[in-house]
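Lab notebook, design round three. We kept the backbone fixed and only want residue identities now. Task for the bench partner: fill in a sequence for the structure below.
Input structure tokens:
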């Protein structure tokens, strides 16, 4: 079974597109954002039934000897007539029904002279299996006989003499039922060992993967722990809720280095409850080279009037100092020099842009003589920067929401179907590094996983 693989797959689905950057700034040291994903998981018992039925042959038991079992003069063959059926109990247990057809032949006689007669009848054998999901990703079952009921009872018809052989058959069935318990437990242990899938999934998502070719964006997810609620058994399904603790990082440019693979996966933690909805945090990184490029597209060669004269923006660049974004604009004309406007980056939900707040202004020039002209120029350029400069996020948010919901509603592996919805997606805080601006993105969403159709 592969459903553990999907636990970590969903950790990498929440993506946020970004603008492309120069290759020379491909390696960043952005903060890792710790978050978690919660997801209800539903496993129909029909899937476990399919697994057990695939492992149990139609011919369950065969005794072809008259002389074994103290010369009992008895042969028997047992077939499975219909698929084995599983029903959820009330105490983390499964009730298993195995419908059987039995052919039996009995010899009647003395001194080595026997008359043989055969019959065919049907019964339903029942088992009670308790299930324990251990935190090392293995499942242990303990199956015990729960009796059987006759559909048709075995009777040998010798014409005038009809001999019921119920007691003889019941003895053989009880012996086989004990053996069958071991077969069920062995098959369950082999098929429901999730260690290899957990390890495979863990290492798969240590590899960064491309989430936007258009924006050359990479998402790197590092799972750090898994929480699982106790299994709940219902009439036709098993339910549990998963919580995956992760670190997520988003990069632009060249593919970032992968984390070292692990050789064993950590045990999961059992928790009484996990929330149905979750908030996933990831990062969107805008290098200052790209922020400068955006500013040039907006302001380069732009002109405005100061005291009936022209001032023209000839160059502009963006960088960071401490917790402030600095926009340095070169101007020519009536005021020739360098204007430095700095501000604290914040997310403006109305404009859907990263903008500057608490702006400060400084002018370096040698050709202005009047203080009034300086104040007028300051007011105009600061207003222009505050109103027009910003790193737009609307398109990226809409693209991200669409891509996330598309990723939340598909079948990644045969039989593993996810359904989910994004309720809200927006930047929550803005961080600065030496190389760029990092937006922390909050995604409010819900997910469900259905294991069906292996």
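Proposed sequence:
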């Amino acid at each position: 079974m592969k459903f553990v693989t999907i636990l970590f797959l969903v950790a990498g689905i929440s993506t946020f597109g970004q603008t492309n950057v120069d290759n020379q700034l491909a390696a960043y040291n952005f903060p890792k954002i710790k978050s978690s994903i919660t997801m209800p998981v539903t496993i129909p018992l029909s899937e476990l039934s399919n697994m057990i039925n695939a492992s149990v042959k139609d011919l369950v038991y065969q005794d072809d000897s008259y002389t074994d079992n103290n010369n009992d003069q008895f042969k028997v063959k047992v077939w499975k007539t219909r698929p084995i059926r599983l029903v959820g109990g009330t105490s983390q247990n499964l009730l298993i029904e195995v419908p059987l057809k039995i052919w039996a032949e009995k010899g009647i006689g003395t001194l080595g002279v026997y008359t043989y007669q055969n019959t065919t009848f049907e019964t339903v054998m029942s088992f009670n299996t308790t299930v324990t999901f251990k935190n090392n990703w293995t499942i242990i079952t303990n199956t015990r006989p729960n009796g059987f009921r006759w559909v048709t009872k075995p009777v040998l018809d010798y014409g005038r003499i009809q001999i019921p052989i119920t007691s003889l058959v019941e003895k053989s069935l009880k012996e086989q039922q004990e053996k069958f318990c071991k077969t069920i437990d062995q098959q369950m242990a082999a098929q429901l060992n999730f260690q290899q899938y957990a390890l495979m999934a863990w290492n798969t998502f240590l590899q960064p993967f491309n989430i936007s070719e258009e924006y050359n964006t990479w998402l790197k997810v590092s799972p750090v722990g898994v929480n699982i609620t106790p299994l709940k058994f219902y009439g036709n399904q098993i339910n549990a809720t998963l919580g995956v603790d992760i670190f997520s990082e988003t990069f632009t440019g060249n593919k970032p280095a992968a984390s070292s693979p692990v050789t064993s996966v950590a045990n999961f933690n059992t928790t009484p409850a996990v929330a149905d909805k979750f908030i996933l945090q990831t990062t969107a990184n805008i290098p200052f080279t790209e922020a400068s490029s955006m500013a040039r597209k907006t302001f380069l060669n732009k002109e405005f009037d100061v005291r009936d004269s022209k001032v023209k923006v000839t160059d502009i660049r963006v960088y960071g100092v401490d917790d402030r974004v600095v926009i340095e604009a070169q101007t020519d004309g009536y005021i020739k020099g360098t204007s430095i406007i700095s501000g604290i980056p914040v997310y403006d939900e109305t404009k859907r842009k990263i903008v500057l707040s608490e702006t400060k202004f400084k002018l370096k020039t040698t050709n202005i003589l009047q203080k009034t002209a300086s104040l007028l120029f300051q007011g105009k350029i600061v207003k222009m920067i505050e109103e027009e400069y910003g790193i737009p996020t609307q398109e990226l948010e809409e693209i991200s929401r669409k891509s996330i919901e598309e990723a939340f509603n598909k079948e990644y592996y045969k039989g593993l179907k996810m359904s989910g919805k994004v309720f809200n997606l927006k930047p929550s805080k803005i961080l600065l590094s030496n190389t760029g601006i990092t937006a922390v993105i909050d995604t409010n969403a819900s997910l469900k996983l259905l294991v069906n159709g292996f």
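Keep this in mind before ordering anything: The helical segments are 3-9, 45-55, 68-71, 166-191, 195-204, 288-299, 371-388, 394-408.
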